[in-house]
Amino acid sequence: QVQLVESGGGLVQPGESLRLSCTATGFTLDTYAIGWFRQAPGKERKVVSSISSGEIRTYYTDSVKGRFTISRDNAKNTVYLQMNNLKPEDTALYYCAATDQWTIATLAHEYDYWGQGTQVTVSS
Fold it and tell me: Model confidence over 3-32: pLDDT tens digits?
């Protein structure tokens, strides 16, 4: 069964950090580009970051540049999103997604597999 499972979300205060994990079962991630998306209540799902297969290229939306880092550990079949200096506007449900195209992808329709999401809440 092909599945993506996110973990690592939670409630933190502004300025704190979280590391999200996206682990695949039923297939290996190393030939897939991976994206992290987020969706706040009442808003559309948007890309946060993407990493190509082979870790050659990465993409970050402007609002997270310098604060978030995407990486992959193919031995663990896992992709991470390290989120530092979190802000209240980062509050959302975070999803990981996989596409069999090798390069980064920024549009939701480009992705083939999706996880169920993990909630990130940044509040004082």
Answer: 999 999 999 999 999 999 999 999 898 899
